[in-house]
Amino acid sequence: MNASPASASPAPFETHSVDNQARPLEDYNVFLGDKALVEAVEREGGSWIRDRATAFGARCGGAATIRDAELAERFSPQLKTHDRFGRRIDEVEFHPSYHALMALAFDEGIHALPWTEPRPGAHVARAALYIPFNQTNDGPACPLTMTFASIPALRSTPDIARAWEPRILASAYDPAARPVEQKRAATIGMAMTEKQGGSDVRANTSRATPLGNRGPGSGYEIVGHKWFCSAPMCDAFLVLAQAPGGLSCFLMPRWRPDGTRNAFHIQRLKNKLGNRSNASSEVELHGAFGWLLGEEGRGVPTIIEMVRHTRLDCALGSTAVTRHAVAQAINHCRDRTAFGRALIAQPLMTNVLADLAVESEAATVLSLRVARAFDEQEGDEDKARFARIVTPIAKYWICKRTPAVAYEALECHGGNGFVEDSIMPRLYRDSPVNSVWEGSGNVQCLDLLRAVGRDPATLATYFAEVGLAKGRDPRLDAFVGALKAELADLSNIETRARRLVERLALALQAALLVQHAPAAVAEAFLASRIAADSGRAFGTLPPGVDTAAIVSRADPLAA
Description:
By secondary structure, the chain is an alpha+beta fold. The protein is built from 19 helices and 11 strands. 49% of the residues lie in helices and 13% in strands. It comes from Vineibacter terrae.
């Protein structure tokens, strides 16, 4: 006889207990948990930022901030070309969590610190904040970087700088779409590339016609298009267009001086692989108003300082993605067990994690050394030369290595890493963006060749820096000697440019690590990146390397 519903046993909704799953990496200090970063900031001249960076690192690792990062990614920007009455508005709507992240960064001054606090070590101090922030969600980093990097270009025209700098440097983030005169703070974007040219900006076809006087600070009308306009809700944009005197740089505001909307129309938002919380767009310029920065025909020299500063941030941003990926992998493997013991204690996994940690530390020491080069370049030609050569080296190599790190860290999670909730797919999608932004790998290599060709003394400053490690290890000495021999042969130099820049990066990373990193980290780098028989995949560190010590040092919770 069947039991009646009233007498039946309740269905067992829980068939198992949930265990052997990693705890989420949250409510930790992103700055203090990164020993390599803490040490590099102290060493490279930014020790005065430590207390602020410590407090900020706790905010970046807080559960609420991590939740904002998740929501900003899940609810991507939406283009609104018209309002409900049919009027053109060209606005992009962001989730409130995106604005919360922007406010977090502005509150700490990441968009402006070297200009608001022009003291020794300011770029290094900013890096101490920028790297932890980029481990939340790197979408807001795009407008932050362009706002920060716009100042050198604006200062080419003092009248424009005086009018705009106070709001660019203000720390009260204001997302409202209204004339800049009514805002507490302004953000700056960039629109250089066009369909037919890409990185070859001299092929631009957009035209700029003077509205009266010609010269720095004068008004022009710009007609044309931009294939990539980064962060289209910024308050103004640095734009390249062909003026009567040649390719020129302009500051194009969203609102004209009379308070009306500028003729800046967003055609669509890019459907991107990653960096989804940030809006990238295609725009048409239907007679948009802009002020000339610098002289007509000098557009590239005017904007190049902005480009150099954004390339610094590309290296710092990729360093952040690399560090975040490694931190997530170590956190997972510390908590997860298989075959009777924790993953982190299994020799082969320890090897993989240590190899990833070495890559992260190498990126950190190099990117912070670049930041110091920016701090020291003013008034010292040799140090300015070093900054010129080390920026494309770091931008090329750190950004190139980041996707490989993100993938390997994802694999450390097994199937869990392939699931969106793990954060790893986002890091993997985001990992290539800095390599293609502000000049892809080939552009960096060719820029380096041009810098050395124009001023051969530039290369001497590089070898002087690497020479500080001479005699520390015979493998490094031999590697540097072979590199010098390669550079002495100029045949097919352009074809070999990637190989040369890669080796320039490796030699400098090795030189920094043997001077400043723990012996285990330096030995692992030399054995796996400098030695001739080094492995090709992560997890191929040779016997004798203290992998457990390296992983322990890189553990984000071991502060």
